[in-house]
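Hi P.,

Sorry for the delay on this. The queue was packed all week, but I finally got your sequence through. Input first:
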Amino acid sequence: MTMGKVNLLGLQIIFYEDRNFQGRSYETSSDCADMSSYLSRCLSCRVESGCFMVYDRTNYMGNQFFVRRGDYSDYQRMGMSDCIRSCRMIPMHRGQFRIKIFEQENMSGQSNELQEDCENIPERLRMSECLSCSVLDGHWLLFEQPSFRGKMIYLRPGEYRSFRDMGINGTRVMSMKRIMESCS
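Then the structure:
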């Protein structure tokens, strides 16, 4: 049984209760803060078009994983500690990319503004920590390890005064990149 919404944006993701695209499914083209309204659990997904972030906690919290067109047959391969519980659609951004990062929470301490990817924040910017930021333009992925590896955090335009408030405890931000591809 497939449930879902009409796709007006050209973005589509299908979630499945079991690994390898088995069991009941739920199809959407928009954000979903709590998958339990549609599925008892979600262990795999298929992205037909677009880009999405999937989360292992409701309300876009916990471990996050960036997915684009393709098959994701097992949630554990995505670094999820539990099943997928929420998802956020990532709209295509055209134009400038700008992010201002801060060494301390509440937008304080040393700061740097970036307009391009940064593979190693401590080395390139001489910042020991990155605990808050303001996304001025574009959509960004922040990573806990240099070279765009490890746990990731999706950020869209807005202020992020504390990464802990997003349910990301103990994660250090060591690299970041712009979400630029068309995700089709």
